[in-house]
Specification:
Blueprint (H helix, E strand, L loop, with lengths): L7 E2 L2 E10 L2 E8 L4 E8 L7 H15 L9 E7 L2 E7 L4 E2 H6 L5 H20 L2 E2 L8 E3 L5 E3 L6 E2 L2 H4 L29 H4 L6 H17 L9 H10 L13 H10 L11 H13 L15 H27 L8 E5 L15 E3 L5 E5 L7 E5 L6 E4 L1 H4 L6 E3 L5 E6 L2 E6 L6 E5 L6 E5 L4 E6 L6 E6 L6 E2 L11 E6 L5 E8 L2 E8 L5 E6 L6 E3 L3 E6 L2 E8 L4 E10 L2 E8 L5 E5 L4 E9 L4 E16 L6 E7 L2 E8 L4 E4 L7 E6 L5 E6 L2 E6 L7 E5 L1 E5 L5 E6 L2 E6 L7 E4 L5 E6 L5 E6 L6 E6 L7 E2 L5 E6 L5 E6 L4 E7 L5 E2 L3 E4 L4 E2 L5 E2 L5 E9 L4 E5 L8
Antiparallel strand pairs: 1-2, 2-3, 3-4, 4-6, 5-6, 7-9, 8-11, 9-10, 12-60, 13-14, 14-15, 15-16, 17-18, 18-19, 19-20, 21-22, 22-23, 23-24, 25-26, 26-27, 27-28, 29-30, 30-31, 31-32, 33-34, 34-60, 35-36, 35-59, 36-37, 37-38, 38-39, 40-41, 41-42, 42-43, 44-45, 45-46, 46-47, 48-49, 49-50, 50-51, ...
């Protein structure tokens, strides 16, 4: 259910939203039974299907329930209504300590009184074996009466003696289960202990470090460690000593000593128990604050003045020497920090639809795409857990988004509805940059010189355009010697903003080269790149080759590579990797994310049976007699076509080309199959025997009932290819949108397809041969239309991936009822595609079981490369 001001949740009347974080939204509500105000910490319904997130939610509830202390926010209970769950918590008034510190240093006596209560809260938690793990001023509230409340024990994990001595205690705040090994960061960068920053095992001593950082910040009125990006902040945590001179002179010696003991990098030498901090603060509060006056300097003799002058000169020379030494001495290398994050359930990066990951230029933010069920673009800081959806589904029109950062990291450019737009990284209103030719895939890069290069995927291959970042008309980028635009794509600018690296296909291989704006200059760099080639300082190129993430040394001044490529991580999922020039990498490794089971359902959604063939399966095509099915299946050897004979229970591999073979469609008699390979339409016998025949360019969608045409997509439009006589393709649809997945009616007089010319993908029907008439079928999003064999019913998948139906009345004009839902499919429909038996009674669906594989983040990756 939707929760917001004015709504009711169980016995609670919601009055206002008061916060949002990694665990969801927090609302102020009124308990109508006990007549008190409470805080509802709500897990959104879209997250309720995520077992890992629910486990984390339950863990927070269990931890809070075990803590009963006046300085810890109380948990009253858990409330469930439908699929929505919420913690009912004490509503704590006042301001956060973070807001208080923003006003400047806190007087010593007040700071110590606050710190004492924080120590009391941690002591109570530690006594029960609980570590907070994310103590920071934002998680501390100070009420008007001076009472301190420590909030958000959501990162806490009850210690047990066995785990505490093993490598399985480091739990990420964003997932459980698979997230129990060392090597993962949790918490907020500026407050985490050195062992946390290194991804090592942590215990209550991590809280003691964070306590010292918070106390330092209250007294100094500033962060102890803070830089512009997470890389430098973590490096300071691990390497740099606090600036003790920033503390006010009236801080008691006992408190300075306490800070020194809390902020020891080696946890074995750190303060052993937070109770000792409470005792030290009590003793410091009893000591009077020093008010000793400044002693005036007596009159000096000439000799003393000369001596002092010499001393001053010596001091100046010593200072200058020290200054020079700090700039000439070898700087210790910043450490490499490796950890994992898991996108929230409503923002998973899963499957082919959702493969895009981009790291901001400063390495501090991670942007990623969502699922078909929750499409959009999401952003999260790498030193925190809060996720913000900056591009919502209504801006995408049902498309899978690709996007890229502006060079200053303030905006994200994205593609939707044949347009390139930019939106603030924190969310807001997008602005139009340019309209683009129709395409099945776009990529882009934004230079520091205010130029954007855009790759537009087309049937003949990708084409490169340039457009001003401020807006304008896209212009094709000329090839060598002023020729027409080449088949090039996947551009990435180098730091100078003029040169870029792009990839072009040459026969059976790919080649990455360096190009330059306003010039035909090309310099070949390397071969075999399967992804954008990204630059990482001080001198590396990072890209995908043979499915692995690899790196190679690169001189940005000479623009030359050297040495051999080396593997960074094996088996990267799709194009799911990003890299910033500052040295932050993000990727998902481990091979295919999805495992699909070909499952038969009846019209009511009851599961009937499954086929033996499994794996990563998509795009089924069912013969009209229902005797066999052809699918595309991805395994370790690539993507190929397989034929399934359900009655016999046999599976036959039809293709084994190294290039992906996709989008199979069977001929009406079931003897031939047309499919797509490298944007070419290929035809062969459905038995797998015989030679292949290349018919033309495009992506296959259907075969006409009379066997005379194959429909295909090219340039964002739907076409029909005659298979005999004049084989000139005929454009079927030209809505100026992205038109795709055309399917003939059984009598061949109608064609159903999906288009996003209205702003989102909907199903439409028009005549064949085409006329100027068309009829909408779906209402709130739809695709993948499929006809019943008598033409009296049309099925399609809705935006929520459910199966819908409309009844059709035969006649000279198209007449259909309003859509009605037949059933929801458990799991995920692969690309929304399914097939239906001739009688419309059974549905074959590749139901995708998606792995919630985390994203690996490597901060300051170059430091890990062997010299």
């Amino acid at each position: 259910m939707a929760i917001g001001p004015g709504s009711r949740f169980g016995a609670y009347e919601v009055s206002a939203a008061i916060g949002e974080g990694g665990m969801g939204k927090v609302f102020r509500a009124r308990d109508t039974g006990l007549h008190r105000d409470v805080a509802l910490k709500v897990l959104p319904e879209s997250f309720a299907v995520d077992g890992e997130r629910l486990a984390r939610f339950d863990r927070e509830a269990q931890v809070l329930a075990s803590l009963n202390h006046p300085n810890i926010a109380h948990l009253y209970g858990i409330e469930d209504e439908g699929a929505t769950r919420a913690l009912v918590m004490e509503l704590v008034g006042g301001t956060t300590l973070a807001e208080r510190v923003e006003a400047g240093p806190i007087p010593v006596a007040e700071a110590l009184a606050i710190a004492r209560q924080i120590a009391e809260a941690l002591e109570a938690a530690h006594d029960q074996g609980i570590v907070h793990r994310d103590l920071k001023p934002a998680n501390v509230k100070v009420r008007g009466d001076g009472v301190v409340k420590v909030l958000d024990f959501g990162l806490a994990k009850a210690l047990d003696p066995v785990a505490a001595s093993s490598a399985s205690v480091a739990n990420s705040p964003t997932f459980t289960g698979i997230g129990t090994q060392a090597g993962m960061i949790l918490g907020t960068a500026a407050y985490m202990s050195p062992e946390q920053a290194k991804g090592q095992v942590v215990d209550k001593r991590a809280d003691i470090w964070a306590f010292g950082v918070v106390l330092y910040e209250m007294l100094a009125g500033r962060l102890m460690f803070s830089r512009d990006n997470v890389t430098e902040t973590l490096a300071q945590v691990i390497l740099k000593e606090p600036e003790w001179k920033a503390l006010p002179p009236d801080v008691p010696p006992r408190v300075r000593d306490l800070l020194g003991r809390c902020l020891v990098r080696d946890p074995r030498r750190r303060l052993r128990d937070i109770g000792e901090a409470r005792i030290a603060i009590d003793e410091a509060l009893k000591e009077p604050v020093s008010t000793a006056p400044v002693v005036p300097v007596p009159t000096r003799s000439r000799r003393r003045e000369i001596a002092l002058g010499a001393l001053a000169l010596f001091f100046m020379l010593t200072t200058a020497g020290a200054w020079l030494w700090t700039r000439l001495r070898p700087v210790p290398a910043l450490p490499t920090v490796r950890f994992e994050v898991s996108p929230l359930a409503g923002a998973k990066v899963e499957g082919r639809f959702n493969r895009w990951i981009e790291v901001s230029p400063d390495g501090g933010l991670l942007a990623f795409s969502g699922t078909p069920a929750s499409p959009g673009i999401f952003v999260r800081p790498l030193d925190g857990t809060a996720v913000r959806q900056v591009v919502t589904p209504d801006l995408l029109g049902g498309e899978a988004p690709t996007f890229f950062w502006s060079p200053d990291g303030q905006s994200i450019a994205f593609f939707a509805n044949r347009k390139l737009q930019a939106i603030p990284a924190g969310g807001g209103t997008p602005r139009m940059i340019c309209a683009l030719p129709a395409s099945h895939l776009y990529m882009g890069t934004w230079s520091t010189q205010g130029v954007i290069l855009v790759m537009v995927g087309q049937a003949k291959g990708p084409t490169l355009f340039r457009v001003p970042a401020a807006g304008g008309e896209p212009v094709p980028v000329n090839g060598p010697e002023g020729s027409a635009a080449e088949s090039i794509g996947m551009p990435v600018f180098l730091p100078d903003g003029r040169h870029y690296v792009a990839v072009r296909r040459l026969d059976d291989r790919t080649e990455a080269f360096v190009g330059v704006l306003d010039s035909a200059e090309r310099r070949t760099l390397l071969s075999g790149a399967e992804s954008p080639v990204r630059y990482v300082a001080p001198g590396y190129l990072v890209f995908l080759r043979d499915g692995d993430l690899v790196g190679q040394r690169f001189d940005p001044g000479r623009r030359e590579v050297s040495g051999d490529a080396f593997t960074i991580a094996p088996e990267i999922v799709d194009l799911a990797f990003g890299a910033s020039a500052t040295g932050t990498l993000a990727y998902r490794a481990g091979g295919p994310l999805q495992h699909s089971t070909l499952t038969w359902f009846d019209r009511g959604g009851r599961q009937l049976r499954t086929e033996a063939l499994s794996g990563s399966i998509q795009a089924p095509s069912l013969s009209r007699d229902g005797q066999h099915v052809v699918v595309e299946r991805t395994d370790a050897s690539g993507t190929d076509l397989w034929r399934i004979d359900p009655a016999r229970g046999t599976n036959t591999r039809l293709t084994d080309d190294p290039a992906p073979d996709v989008r199979p469609v069977l001929s009406p008699d079931g003897t031939q199959v047309a499919f797509t390979r490298n944007q070419k339409i290929v035809r062969k016998f459905a038995s797998g025997l015989g030679a292949e025949d290349i018919l033309g360019d495009g992506e296959t969608t259907d075969w006409s009932p009379d066997g005379k045409h194959v429909t295909f997509i090219r340039g964002g439009a739907l076409w029909a290819l005659p298979l005999s006589g004049d084989k000139t393709p005929v454009q079927l649809v030209d809505t100026k949108g992205n038109d795709r997945r055309g399917r003939f009616s059984p009598d061949g007089t109608w064609i159903a397809y999906e288009s996003n010319f209205s702003g989102r993908f909907e199903v439409y029907v028009q005549r064949f041969p085409p006329t100027s008439e068309l009829w909408p079928v779906s209402v709130e999003g739809g695709g993948s239309a499929y006809w019943r064999s008598d033409g009296k019913e049309l099925f399609f998948s809705a935006a929520d991936q459910s199966v819908m139906s409309v009844t059709i009345t035969p006649g000279q004009t198209f007449q259909a009822t309003a859509p009605r839902k037949l059933f929801d499919i458990p799991g995920v429909i692969t690309n929304g595609r399914f097939v239906v038996t001739a009688d419309g009674e059974q549905f074959l669906v590749p139901v995708q079981q998606v792995s919630n594989r985390p994203i690996t983040v490597v901060v300051n990756w170059p430091a890990s490369v062997a010299k």
